[in-house]
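Run log // design_07
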């Protein structure tokens, strides 16, 4: 099995609250709550481990064979580590500052409201230390996956540097970030990006809200130098296009009872790369990944699914 390294520059403690209906400006009573060690790269590592990989995480995080590299602030690191699965090998890069918290409030109809702290600040020395840890973990890896936001103090140009480090180690680089970090990934011509519809819309300058517009966006991003695009469309499924392919693949989302959409994109990316690393075709990998992502939305918080959903 190929080695996959995940990187989490901006981990968080995720608090999920479940309410019947969210009343703005009113007192809301949570019927259930949970704290989990979060961050997109960390979520990818957790899912890879569930799919059968052994993980290393570098906080700042690496995880398949899985390695997780994570940038962990000294204040809050112990709480985060305590909530991270022991089956994932964690490479924690200790940085200054305090660990951020993210709050997700999920109503009974599945609508989720999120409030995320920015995280940081990280110094230039912290960013260099994280980069060095990724470079070391990437040796012998098939993929390096950078997920989530960048903390205050970490420049978007860091994405280009980590892409160079991954390639120097012989690994492909996948980016699941937003905003300027995602734009930097496109400029760096990374091997794969995984935007959602809103993130893709900002990248290409037109609304991406259905399969035709997603296919158009993917073609444009390939023309700009990205190796492949895995674009999630929520209830409309996901599309995949690679520079080496003549057509764009699409997989519809199986019908699911939505409980929480948090982490669904992380599961999609993890399952897709896991299938590719196991020798599946891109088409089969996409179908498998969308089934796992659909199963994720039926779970509370960032709880990972144990089986994919099948059928429309």
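design_07 sequence
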């Amino acid at each position: 099995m190929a080695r996959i390294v995940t990187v989490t520059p901006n981990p968080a403690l995720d608090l999920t609250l479940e309410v019947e209906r969210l009343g703005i400006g009113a007192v809301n009573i949570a019927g259930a709550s949970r704290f989990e060690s979060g961050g997109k790269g960390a979520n990818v590592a957790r899912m890879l481990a569930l799919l059968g990989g052994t993980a290393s995480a570098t906080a700042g995080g690496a995880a398949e064979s899985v390695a997780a590299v994570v940038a962990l602030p000294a204040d809050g690191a112990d709480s985060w580590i305590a909530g991270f699965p022991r089956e994932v090998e964690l490479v924690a890069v200790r940085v200054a500052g305090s660990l951020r918290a993210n709050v997700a409030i999920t109503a009974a109809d599945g609508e989720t409201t999120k409030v995320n702290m920015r995280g940081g600040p990280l110094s230039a020395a912290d960013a260099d230390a994280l980069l060095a840890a990724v470079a070391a973990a990437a040796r012998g890896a098939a993929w390096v996956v950078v997920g989530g936001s960048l903390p205050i103090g970490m420049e978007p140009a860091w994405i280009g540097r980590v892409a160079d480090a991954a390639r120097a180690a012989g690994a492909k680089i996948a980016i699941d970030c937003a905003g300027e970090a995602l734009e930097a990934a496109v400029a760096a011509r990374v091997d794969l990006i995984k935007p959602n519809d809103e993130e893709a819309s900002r990248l290409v300058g037109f609304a991406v809200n259905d399969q035709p517009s997603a296919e158009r966006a993917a073609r444009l991003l390939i023309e700009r130098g990205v190796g492949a695009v895995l674009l999630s469309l929520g209830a409309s499924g996901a599309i995949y296009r690679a520079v080496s392919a003549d057509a764009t693949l699409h997989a519809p989302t199986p019908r699911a009872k939505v409980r929480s959409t948090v982490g669904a994109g992380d599961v999609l990316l993890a399952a897709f790369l896991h299938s590719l690393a196991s020798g599946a075709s891109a088409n089969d990998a996409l179908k498998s990944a969308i089934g796992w992502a659909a199963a994720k939305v039926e779970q509370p918080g960032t709880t990972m699914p144990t089986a994919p959903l099948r059928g429309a």
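The domain at 4-12+38-100+118-296 is CATH 3.40.1190.20 (UDP-N-acetylmuramoyl-L-alanine:D-glutamate ligase).
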